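Subject: sequence -> structure tokens, single chain

Hey, anyone have a minute? Need the predicted structure for the following. Not urgent.
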Amino acid sequence: MLWFSDDPSLNQQTLRRIQQASDRLRRRLVTVEHPFPHRKLKAGHVYFLNTSKLSRNSLLVRRTQTDNSDPLPGTANPDTVPFTFWETLRNTINDTDLTLFMVLDEAHRGMGKRAAERPTIVQRLINGHDDVPPIPVVWGISATPKRFDEAMTEANVQQSRVHLGTIQVDPVRIQESGLIKDDVILDFPREAGDFSTVLLARGVRRVREMSRAWDDYVSAQEESEKVKPLLVLQVPNRPDSTQVANALNTIREEWPELEHDAVAHVFGERTTMAFGGHVVPYIQPERVQDTEHVRVLLAKDAISTGWDCPRAEVMVSFRPAKDEDHITQLLGRMVRTPLARRIEGNNVLNSVECILPRFDKANAVRVIERIMGGEAGTPGTGSRVLVDPQVMMPNPNIADEVWQIFADLPTETLPRKHANPIKRLTSLAHALAMDKLVERAGRLAHNHLHNVLNGVAAQYAKDLETAVNDVLTVEGGSLHAHKGMISEANWTEIADDRSIQESYRRGARVVSPDVARTYLDHLAQDADDEESLRDAHVKVAALAMLPQTRPRLDEAADELATQWLSQHRVAIKSLLLKPAKVSTRKLPP
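Reply:
Had a minute. Here:
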């Protein structure tokens, strides 16, 4: 698979995302660099390539002659490698045992005509060029498919291939999954004038509010993953140094506790820049999400295409924008939820704010409505587009005792669709034990699941032995460069305690941390040495690797929960019918 874009940083971001999703692909992800000594691309590998690598002067395609013609296959001879990357593609496509797929990321870019009607590099890859055949399967990814379809038509690609149709991703389903924000707040000034610093100060106050809200949520929920909201300040392509300096002064005044290294930029200059008395370092766009000490990001166009940073929760733009496709690309970067799920009962954490004084208001609203799944206020979508919203706070004239009584009122959380069976069982066990319907219900539930794990271990003993060996070993690969040629070799090492603990933590997420902890105690209850405890960690990690383990646990948890609910149905109903206790305290007048 050839993963192609016009931005190397976008490729690196995608590569890292794939690595995070599957450790089995790490040795199969290759960034194409010179020298590239392979006559054919290897099956089962993903090769990341950007436009500049196939430009005229690139070492991957460079000619030995000094003419001004385009680099074409067959006559090139780059340093240390007797063939070009074009020839590598040709050999791969012509091999009947291989099928080359091309993923064109941000597919609406790079499809236009150049001077003298010469095809672009993207068109050469899609349509073929000279003795290089067209790539058999091309998959375009774009948030603006209309422009992509038009570009594909202009590139005459229908003459050489079959169009299988555009796959539209349903935004309503994405929003229901919790991957994008429920509320998008768009701020526009109501009068003409330059209110840059005023609006920026508003954005800073908003991101500070969200920071406090996230800290309170993480603390209350005991979340292991912290969220550090990011403020994005978008400036023109040729930013005025004084304007940027004034903006940074405003940010520092509104956010005095901001650390000295909390501001960075992703400008094309790619170097540390000075604005007045402020020194702002460069950071690669793909690193912003994981570099949590960066809380303010200065950007031009880097965030409008392909950039992925879910913790970007507030944006202030000093740029004008009217084109709907451009606005779609830009605002689409801001609607991702940081934890990839909805935060129940917290409108602040389920919202994103974009302050757009120079955007076309009608087009921006139309774009957000489309991203969020239809027209604003459409029943059933759950999405809202808010313009100039007002935050409603508690009435200060009401005594604190009233709010305390309100907080003490009994509440019940409705079960979610597709609830986690193990969490559902443990919650039920806790409730039954608290109401004294089942004594030590939590221990009974975990013992029931422990027996399931013991059964899986006995039934799939050979598979478990293989999984144990995988936990106890660490596999790797070595690249050996010799006279311009690179060979790859695999190696295996004995896992140390740190690697085993990491395998155990991954396994605990599969079987649930609580069940893993109590099963660990079950396995090591008679152990009197560290070796037995280590073996218990290995067994838990290995059991989690078996594909049969989690389905068996879910099935057993559902069965026991159903049994308890049926067995104690009358007692539970009688609890619900009991009158709630009402406070008799006298309220102040």
